[in-house]
Amino acid sequence: MIFDKLRKFNVVFDSPEVNSPPVFSSGDVVSGKVVLELATESKVSSLKLHAEGFAKVHWTESRSAGSSTAYTQNYSDEVEYLNRREVLLQADNGEMTTLPAGRHEYPFSFQLPEETLVTSFEGKHGSIRYWVKVKLHRPWTTVKKIKKEFTVIEPIDINTPSLLAPQAGTKEKMARIWYRNAGQVTVTAKIDRKGYTPGEVIPVFAEFDNSTSRSVLPKAYITQTQTFIARGTMKQKRAVVATLCGDAVGARRRESWHGRAIKIPPVGPSILQCRIIRVEYALKVCVDIPGTSKLCLELPLVMGTIPLHPFGSRTSSVSSQYSLNLDWLHMAIPEQPEPPPDYSSVVSDEEAVRSTPAARPEDDLSGILQRSLMAYVQEFRFRPPPVYSEVDPNPAPFSMRPRCMTC
């Protein structure tokens, strides 16, 4: 039969490293070859390649139109980033091309747009994907298609003034027991910079002033927020990707963290330039206060791809830039780590009320989102992060003078 004539039909990308998929960024040249292996002589009308890149979002929400009437509202949007076509094989006069039995290779090459692309991403309500699709047209048979995705990671260099700037803040809360004030809790925190890369350790400098009559418990979290936007409506998915728990601060006492370490797990870079999908990170320094909602101070983070003081030229190809910092794709996780807390246990009661959506049926994610996930997925698909060291290498004395953390 004619279907048996085609033994192999696949796409192979050129890669500088053996057994390692290539990584591209805007302006790079994507090259490779289409491989055909025929069992017998075969006639071919054409062989065409189409390269595409899209950001897409989709989710559904249930609406009520009365006591007994309900309907489902669909939200979807997309942004095109790549559209290239190339003819690999086609006779000039429109006639058939006869290929002998055996292996045939057809090279292809195209340049990604010079304007900034967006990092590949897979999430619950959306994705950013790039792929090449090849169609083989033959007489008297259906068109044979093959599709292969490739990875785009837009570099984020943390060696810039805005990402090297220290981040600091102060927040206070009056604790209440029944209808009377029980004293004030104040948290002041500072980190060395805004930009980090996966695998780095963030030294947290913080001061906790507990003026209440009960002990409070300080904690720190790294959170990730995925935001999907369609038709003027926003949907968010939040997760805690790393956690750090400190020692209790006694009643009417003050304690400090002198560079308490929290390690960044293997997560994907921040996505800040896409119109319909954003991935953002933050460091939350919180205090659990008995009898009242927790106090949380949030410091923004940007997850970059080019680490602090990288070696080599910054104008080199993205593949060589990532040779140093792609370890976050393969970082090993201990066999039995302690899972991070739910996001609901991190936010304050007021914030939880504002961000909690109305009850609705499970979203229908069939269709465009039913795809295999990639290793650099921003949604936390790895094992939960390990228990990071909570031992202060420079413990503070029992009594400590007040210290300004924002200076």
Automatic annotation (TrEMBL):
<dbReference type="GO" id="GO:0007399">
    <property type="term" value="P:nervous system development"/>
</dbReference>
<comment type="similarity">
    <text>Belongs to the arrestin family.</text>
</comment>
<dbReference type="GO" id="GO:0005886">
    <property type="term" value="C:plasma membrane"/>
</dbReference>
<dbReference type="InterPro" id="IPR014752">
    <property type="entry name" value="Arrestin-like_C"/>
</dbReference>
<dbReference type="GO" id="GO:0015031">
    <property type="term" value="P:protein transport"/>
</dbReference>
<dbReference type="Pfam" id="PF00339">
    <property type="entry name" value="Arrestin_N"/>
</dbReference>
<dbReference type="InterPro" id="IPR050357">
    <property type="entry name" value="Arrestin_domain-protein"/>
</dbReference>
<dbReference type="InterPro" id="IPR011022">
    <property type="entry name" value="Arrestin_C-like"/>
</dbReference>
<dbReference type="Pfam" id="PF02752">
    <property type="entry name" value="Arrestin_C"/>
</dbReference>
<feature type="domain" description="Arrestin C-terminal-like">
    <location>
        <begin position="181"/>
        <end position="308"/>
    </location>
</feature>
<dbReference type="InterPro" id="IPR014756">
    <property type="entry name" value="Ig_E-set"/>
</dbReference>
<dbReference type="InterPro" id="IPR011021">
    <property type="entry name" value="Arrestin-like_N"/>
</dbReference>
<dbReference type="GO" id="GO:0005737">
    <property type="term" value="C:cytoplasm"/>
</dbReference>
<protein>
    <recommendedName>
        <fullName>Arrestin C-terminal-like domain-containing protein</fullName>
    </recommendedName>
</protein>
